[in-house]
Specification:
Blueprint lengths: L2 H14 L3 E7 L2 E6 L4 H10 L5 E9 L19 E4 L2 H6 L9 E9 L4 E9 L6 E3 L8 H12 L2 E3 L28 E6 L4 E6 L5 E4 L8 H4 L1
Parallel strand pairs: 2-6, 7-8
Antiparallel strand pairs: 1-2, 3-5, 4-11, 5-6, 9-10
Length: 224
């Protein structure tokens, strides 16, 4: 483990105090988890006291299907990919959509002067309308990152100066990167020459899943 990371860990623990819930050094990366209510103050502390003057990235995460696979089976073929149609509504019904720590916000910070990085995560307790403070006033570049997280995950950033969709249409329904949103979407768009405009129609393709090749351990058949 690099001494620079150990030093950073000691400094962060001292600077954040009770705002720090847990931290971890793994694969030469330092990750901290902080309280949702302290998100904005943590950002200020990391910038002003520890020199993290640049926000590299900010995103949302939906943990509702964390650790689950689309298709668990021992009957997959020995080579290539098999494709299967699955009932999306049935899969969604099995997900704990009301789990208390479903959504999280993650940001990656860089200290240019000290040449060190940190990953900061906060879980949002309110899953009905996940809300957390904006850090646009700390790093101005967070503006579009937070709009993207709002658009794709439905996370509300309290205090954002212009929180609106950035990738989908203004009339788009739902948030595409939530795990209860189908990969194929609900509608598809095409140009209608008779109406002279683009129109939306119910999606016509089926939800499918790729199952990669399974490399079985030696003696697998005997064990089965």
């Amino acid at each position: 483990m690099k001494q620079s990371l150990i030093t950073l860990q000691e400094q962060v623990r001292q600077a954040l105090g009770d705002s720090l819930e847990k931290d971890r050094i793994a694969l030469d990366e330092y990750t901290v988890e902080v309280k949702e209510g302290d998100w904005h103050q943590v950002a200020l502390t990391l910038r002003d006291r520890l020199g993290f003057d640049q926000l590299i990235d900010l995103c949302g995460v939906d943990y509702v299907a964390y650790g689950r696979t689309n298709w668990e089976t021992l009957d997959a073929p020995n080579e290539g990919f098999s494709r299967g149609v699955f009932d999306f509504e049935e899969q969604v019904s099995e997900l704990p959509l009301d789990m208390p720590r479903r959504f999280a916000v993650v940001m990656h910070l860089l200290s240019v002067a000290d040449n060190r990085r940190i990953r900061v995560r906060a879980f949002i307790e309110n899953t009905a309308q996940p809300t957390i403070d904006s850090v646009v006033d700390v790093w101005n570049c967070a503006n579009w990152f937070e709009r993207e997280a709002f658009d794709l995950f439905g996370i509300i950033f309290r205090g954002h100066p212009d929180l609106r969709r950035i990738l989908t249409d203004y009339g788009f329904v739902g948030h595409p990167l939530r795990k209860d949103f189908p990969l194929t979407g609900h509608v598809e768009m095409r140009y209608d020459p008779e109406q002279g405009r683009c129109i939306y129609e119910p999606v016509s393709i089926e939800n499918r899943v790729n199952v990669p090749r399974v490399i079985r351990d030696e003696g697998f058949a005997e064990q089965g």
